[in-house]
Amino acid sequence: MTEREHGVVGRSVQRRDLLEKVTGAAVYAVDVEPSGTLHAKVVRSSYAHAQLVRIDAEAALAMPGVVAVVTAEDIKDLFPRFGHIVADHYILATGKVRYYGEPVALVVAETLAAASDAAAQVEVHYSELPAVMSAADALAPSAPLVHDEAFVVSPDESFTAMAATPTADEVLERDNVAHEVTLGWGDVDAALASAHLVVSNEGMKFPMLYAYAMEPYNAVATYTDHQLDVISTAQHPFMVRTDLARIFDLPLSRVRVQVPYLGGGYGSKSYTKVEPLAAVGSWATGRPVKLVLDVEEAIYTTRADSAEVNVRTAFDADGTILARDIEMILDSGAYADNSPLVVAKAANRSFGPYRVPNLRVRGRSVYTNTSPASSYRGFGAPQGSFAGEINLDKAADLLGIDSAELRRRNLVGPGEEILPGKRGLDADLRADLELLVGSLRRDASNAQSSGIGYALTASDAGAFPVSTAHVRLQTDGSVVVLSGSTEMGQGSRSALAQIAAEELGVELIAVSVSQSDTATVAYERTTGASRTTTLTGLALQRACADARAKAADMAAEVFGWPVETIQPAPGGVLGPEEKFVGFGEVIMRWFGAAAGEITGVGLVRRDGATQKMPPFWECGIVGVEVSVEPDTGQVDVRQLVTVADVGFAINPHAVEGQDLGAATQGLGAALFEELVYEGPQLVNPNVVDYRVPRMRDVPAKIDTIIVERRDGIGPYGAKGAGEGALNPMTAAVAIAVGRATGKWPTRVPLTPERVWRLLNDLPDDS
Amino acid sequence: MSSATGSAAGSTSEIATTVNGAAYRGSVANRTTLAAYLRDELGLKGTKVSCELQVCGVCSVLVDGRPVSSCTYLAADIDGRTVETVEGLATGERMHELQRAFVRNFALQCGFCTPGFLMMSKALLERNPDPTEDEIREYLDGNICRCTGYQPIIAAVLEAAAELRGVGVD
């Protein structure tokens, strides 16, 4: 690759959003408050599972400043549920509550203080029902049902194309299975029976996680005259719009969802969250209503699926994988939300980027009376890889083969299919593994109590390819980009500006990017699955090409040039005899005034480069070296190495930042993070007891390696980044701890007590 | 889950304070937190709130030069004191060395924790103009960032410290 092949992309340009953010000027949803805004506080269930007998709101309504108390009864004439796959999620608990913390009523008042005071005075009478607090409880014969009624799974291609096997004739018998997927090929039983070695890891437990996006969910909604305006913390404003339009039976065009800067997302702000609550508050009162959750409420709103995984792998004597047999049960909580897709992705990602001639995966997403689970960065991949990658290291030892060599022998090569009929692998994992292991071994301490672990994942990423972009060339040659994608810290606003500047040959400073407003910018299906640079980037490239073509047509018309003689040039067009005319001049000549603009439109669908699913594979290639303090079980991460196989880095420094951030969240899951239920309640729904990585946890050595082979379908060969380094982190850390202690962990996070118990052959604490 | 208890009406306090060099005088409800006062009364929304339990550092501001968690510090207690927030860091158009170093080092992504990190870092550098990496980790351990993995923040603080001491950046 030549260094100066491109002018603007491929450089670590300064992100403009960072300037606004360091001065305090950047606006987040939580900062927005239209005049006349009322404030809402949610009354939440104090039972995990109970009939709602009666709600007494008189005392609350009589308190100063209280305007309304909204309950399910008040919204029964609306469509009172939401959910993009299964519309099972009640805005306000109806008939019964399904988890501790579920919204039961919404108090709307002149001030937040008044709403909070009054919320404590709403009397809710319950009749307790037996609850299922774990997936095992939920799957037991004659377990109480979390949902008594069946809901239809969305038949839309944008969901089914990514899931393994949603069957039409399910839901014959009611149980607590929200969604089941099976995936496989070959004859697994025969392969297991005839193998040289079969290695099992049973009951591998992955915890419930909380993403802790530091800006908790919030929204302000204004409902007036068949028009709903919402400003919220949504990653996917266009999908939230669909849910809101259904609730109020409004045309999509009469629902506007705007998203300013997000204070963190990491997938946890995917899909609809608090927007319906704020909206029904405004619908009931006729005034703008703002709802800001606190962290405890945010934890009740969305967590990540916990999982229990069994994996068996059959090997030949030389370490060749003959078969894998995987069963995973995900605890998805009280509502489906995105868990059907999470379990489908978990199945696709569970066996790793390896050649598996015989495969059987069964995954179930199970309803329980716990906080609902949905998306969190890399969803599905960490749960499966934790079990699957430890399984490979265990096998390597039993086979007497180096664990890197075992992986090397089984990794799929570039272009090879991981899933039959899907896109072949657009990465070179063998080469990436060499870089990873080389870096780790170069700096290895080889001390008694230290160990190195590394792990690999491949995720079918990019989600369903529906993206659009508009580019508007101005009379002074500057450029406005419109995109429905959301800037949540990942740097998409800056990356899109770089792409537009590159494609049109204008200065970066002359490009502005407007995003995430369903009324004014171009449609984008989601901001998730690491898709923006690749899919929105492609749409934007096409929009720029469209604008250039329009400029050429207009130049041909006004200058009388044959259109085929016109060549593109930076910032304009070249006519006959290399005569340069800037975009601005073309516009002004054509309109006959110092006015007008050229709009270029770019569309991406399942066609051409994006026909095959997934749009790209996002690989996770990470390793750590840890040392374990034998007396305390304390794990210290000495080295962290990540390889970003991104095809092409539009902004290399930003890619490194995404990888280190993702890896650090993975370290949290591996070492600290776990939501813990005791009975019907979480014991740690706060950031004191739910510990996330802090500055003193930063490893001494960090090596973020970027590999660019131009093998993606995105602009300049780019693929998505941002989730990869999280996905195999728990596996890598658990393997390193296993190497340091000589014992393979069976659950994460690896808290000091758990590691100490592991070292001393004591049973796990719970 | 309830953010406040006790009587909503009634008890208020008169305060006189200086925020980012400007004098303010008025009455605040006793239950009003400093964060709510800054954001809702003064419109200084650069200060953010997250954990509301004094453990995330997002809402850090300086009171008489000392870092406090404005989510749990009462507005009534700033009477007679001086408050500095992220909005007061820059001098006119010129950003503070910390602000510039954070941007250069990509020491933020979503930016929600950044005002707290900047104010805490300012307090650190006022006490210790030449901190070691370990001293930075120690001082900023109470500030959570969920995006960056922290290393770029450490680099930014080291760089800003060098600039403020006049050693320059390479």
Structure overview:
The complex is a heterodimer of chains A (766) and B (170). By secondary structure, chain A is of the alpha+beta class. Chain A has four domains: 16-26 and 466-605, Aldehyde Oxidoreductase, domain 4; 32-131 and 212-301, Aldehyde Oxidoreductase, domain 3 (Alpha-Beta Complex); 132-204 and 309-375 and 390-410, Aldehyde Oxidoreductase, domain 4; 415-459 and 616-766, 2-Layer Sandwich (Aldehyde Oxidoreductase, domain 4). In chain A, 27% of the residues lie in helices and 26% in strands. In chain A, strands 3-7-1-14-11-12-13 form a seven-stranded mixed beta sheet, sandwiched between helices. A five-stranded mixed beta sheet of chain A has the order 9-18-17-16-10, sandwiched between helices. A four-stranded mixed beta sheet of chain A has the order 20-28-29-32, sandwiched between helices. Chain A is globular. Residues 164-172 of chain A have low confidence and may be disordered. Chain B has 170 residues and is of the alpha+beta class. Chain B folds into two domains: 14-88, Ubiquitin-like (UB roll) (Roll); 97-164, DNA polymerase, domain 1 (Orthogonal Bundle), CATH 1.10.150. Chain B has five helices and five strands. In chain B, a hairpin with a 2-residue loop joins β3 and β4. Residues 1-8 of chain B have low confidence and may be disordered. Classes of the chains: A alpha+beta (766), B alpha+beta (170).
Summarize the structure.
The complex is a heterodimer of chains A (766) and B (170). Chain A is of the alpha+beta class and 766 residues long. Chain A contains 19 helices and 32 strands.
As for the number of domains of chain A, it is 4
Using the alpha-carbon principal axes, give the shape of chain B.
Answer: globular
Shape of chain A: globular
What is the CATH topology of the largest domain in chain A?
Answer: Aldehyde Oxidoreductase, domain 4
Pick out its properties.
heterodimer, A: 766 residues, alpha+beta, Aldehyde Oxidoreductase, domain 4, Aldehyde Oxidoreductase, domain 3, 4 domains, 7-stranded mixed beta sheet, 5-stranded mixed beta sheet, 27% helix, globular, B: 170 residues, Ubiquitin-like (UB roll), DNA polymerase, domain 1, disordered N terminus
